[in-house]
């Protein structure tokens, strides 16, 4: 009799333990399915320097504009044939603007169309392309192309006085396109693109003949 009672007592405890384990297991699965939220992808905090601008003059090419103090200008790799083409580099952000200059010889419409084609070549990977028109106090007309998505160049632009001078620029990062993490930097450098356009001056000196 004593052994039977002991057996029944052990069986009851075993059943209780099993039921307790089953409840904990079910509650655990339910809470994981309903309340678990993946952590959002994080990015390193980027410290942006204050914007302070200085004049940049290219006397032999006849243009000038203002640049932020954290930018440097390097010559184009084929500076013998294209002395007025430049790289505007932003070392802190591993980025650069490829800046090209062309004289206008009754072909401003063709130059504008070429710039538009180069911007819209990114439509394969671009999520969107927005155009912003600018007219400066010096009579310079410009369009900025904001290219969304995984495009190699996120900001492109051209500016011209329509009669003699034409420039084109394209912002590139020396890394794989990462639109989410680069978005704050793109917006920060886009303000510098606007500053270049709004301070662009084609009247600083008589320029020499430049090849297309």
Outline:
The chain has helices spanning 2-35, 108-120, 179-198; strands at 53-58, 63-68, 72-75, 86-90, 95-103, 126-135, 141-149, 153-160, 165-173. The radius of gyration is 31 Å and the shape is globular. With 212 residues, the chain is of the alpha+beta class.
Characteristic terms for this protein:
alpha+beta, 31% strand, two-stranded antiparallel sheet, seven-stranded antiparallel sheet
What does this 3D model show about the protein?
The chain has 212 residues and is an alpha+beta fold. 32% of the residues lie in helices and 31% in strands. It contains three helices and nine strands; from the N terminus they run H-E-E-E-E-E-H-E-E-E-E-H. The protein has helices spanning 2-35, 108-120, 179-198, and strands at residues 53-58, 63-68, 72-75, 86-90, 95-103, 126-135, 141-149, 153-160, 165-173. A seven-stranded antiparallel sheet has the order 3-4-5-9-8-7-6, sandwiched between helices. Strand 7 and strand 8 form a beta hairpin. The longest helix has 34 residues, at 2-35. The chain is globular. 24% of the residues are buried.
């Amino acid at each position: 009799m004593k052994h039977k009672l002991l057996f029944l007592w052990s069986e009851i405890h075993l059943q209780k333990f099993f039921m307790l384990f089953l409840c904990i297991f079910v509650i655990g699965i339910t809470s994981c399915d309903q309340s678990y939220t993946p952590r959002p992808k994080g990015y390193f905090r980027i410290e942006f320097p204050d914007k302070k601008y200085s004049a940049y003059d290219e006397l032999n090419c006849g243009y000038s504009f203002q640049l932020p103090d954290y930018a440097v200008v390097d010559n184009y790799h084929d500076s013998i044939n294209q002395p007025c083409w430049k790289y505007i580099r932003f070392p802190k952000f591993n980025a650069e603007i490829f800046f090209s200059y062309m004289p206008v010889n009754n072909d401003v419409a063709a130059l504008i169309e070429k710039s538009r084609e180069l911007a819209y070549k990114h439509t394969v990977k671009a999520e969107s392309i927005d155009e912003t028109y600018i007219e400066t106090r010096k009579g310079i007309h410009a369009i900025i192309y904001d290219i969304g998505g995984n495009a190699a160049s996120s900001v492109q632009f051209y500016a011209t006085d329509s009669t003699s001078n034409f420039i084109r620029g394209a912002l590139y990062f020396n890394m794989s396109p990462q639109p989410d993490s680069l978005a704050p930097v793109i917006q920060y450098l886009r303000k510098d693109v606007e500053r270049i356009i709004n301070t662009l001056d084609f009247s600083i000196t008589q320029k020499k003949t430049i090849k297309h």
